[in-house]
Amino acid sequence: MDRKKLLSKLEKIENFNRKDILDVAIEIDETFSVNSINWLVKVLLDDNLICRIGRNKYIIKYQGNRKRKYDYEPSEKLQKVIDCIKEEYPLVEFQAWESIQLNVVLNHQLAHNRIFVEVENMLEGAVFNTLREKFGNVLLKPSVEMFTQYADDDGIAILKMITQTPGDKKHTHKILIEKLIVDIATNKLLRAIYATSECEQMIEDIFSIYIVDETKLFRYAARRNASDKIRKIIMEKTNIKLHDSKS
């Protein structure tokens, strides 16, 4: 299969599915087998030539593409927190992230950092006790008032992890961009530390910079009972064009 020709033709389709890939592959090589489409899609994904943006929806990914996969390097404090939990509770499911991750899309940069640790149900207390012993400034499922009053710089908030929270298979303790988008709009603790007027612009900027899987986004939003809220923000307050069937 001539990949260059394949990608050149797919590039003309704003977002494409497996049938589109199959049709183009057969157009280029009439001997291409329908049974090979799963293999071809996997190869294109593994070689970072295309990216998934939803269920059976893909876009071209060139090396110079301005959109990229979301990733971040944890601060020294966050890394210590992650390492501590992994050492003490190697089987516990958790995700840890920090408010300064928002600075990439915030006009008014956060000068003070807050760390969020989301732990599987029933184990929040145990993790809280361990982290409080080692780091001191740790709050267990705090209210907004408690969080704003007592969470100092690099303060840690222990929260319950929502079931079916999307995760990174390679870096299981990192959050995905789809979760961050939903939390920007719904996490009351997070919203307490940035200007709420920036919410819509932050989400729009994320979509313009990073590759967003809309299926993961709205699946997690549904788990937060916020699917309609997120969709309304995107459709009415931003210039984002969704690719799913409800847009």
Detailed description of the structure:
The protein has about 250 residues and is α/β, with parallel strands linked by helices. It folds into 2 domains: about 5-60; about 75-235, no CATH class. It is about 45% helix and about 10% strand. It has 11 helices and 6 strands. It has helices at about 5-10, 20-30, 35-45, 75-90, 125-135, 145-150, 175-185, 190, 200-210, 215-225, 225-235; strands spanning about 50-55, 55-60, 95-100, 115-120, 140, 155-160. It has a 4-stranded mixed beta sheet with strand order 3-4-6-5, with helices on both faces. A two-stranded antiparallel ribbon has the order 1-2. A hairpin with a 2-residue loop joins β1 (about 50-55) and β2 (about 55-60). The longest helix has 13 residues, at about 75-90. The protein is elongated.
